[in-house]
Amino acid sequence: MPRRKPHARKQAGSDSSAPLGDVFGRTERGPENDEVYVVRTIPGTRATKTYRCPGCDHEIPPGVAHIVAWAADGGEDDRRHWHRGCWNGRRTRRITRRWS
Questions:
Q1: Which of 59, 63, 60, 67 is nearest to 87 (CA)?
Q2: Is 40 buried (19+), middle (13-18) or exposed (0-12) by CB count in 10 A?
Q3: Segment holding 84, helix H or strand E
């Protein structure tokens, strides 16, 4: 009989890198730290178009995992696609591309 790898049990209260709420969007403070943003992680397998990151003004090519964020009081029509590193560093540097 083949051996099976034991299932890793998730401990209560442990943090994971992608919370369950990320499927529908989690909330975080935005670049100016004054607004609340809905943030969603897009895996590389679901990234099918080219986007321009407002944090660094470089393209995010298809197949690259990234972050989608929009103001909680706005709509999904105002969403912007960010590199994960640019979103994480949004408070330490200015946005290079102004949202239109």
A1: 67
A2: middle
A3: helix 84-88
Provide the residue type at 70 as one letter.
Answer: W
User: What is the Cα–Cα distance from 22 to 38, expressed in whole angstroms?
Assistant: 9
pTM for this prediction = 0.69
Running DSSP on this structure, what letter comes out for residue 77?
A: G
- CB 27 within 8 Å of CB 38: yes
Instruction: Name which of 21, 37, 31 is nearest 97 in CA terms.
Output: 31
| Closest to 86 in 3D by CA, of 66, 70, 72 | 66
What does the pLDDT look like over 47-75, one tens digit per residue? 999 999 998 989 999 999 999 999 888 77
> Which helix or strand (DSSP H or E) is residue 87 part of?
helix 84-88
- Give CB contacts under 8 A, 24+ apart, made by 22-29: 27/72, 28/69, 29/91
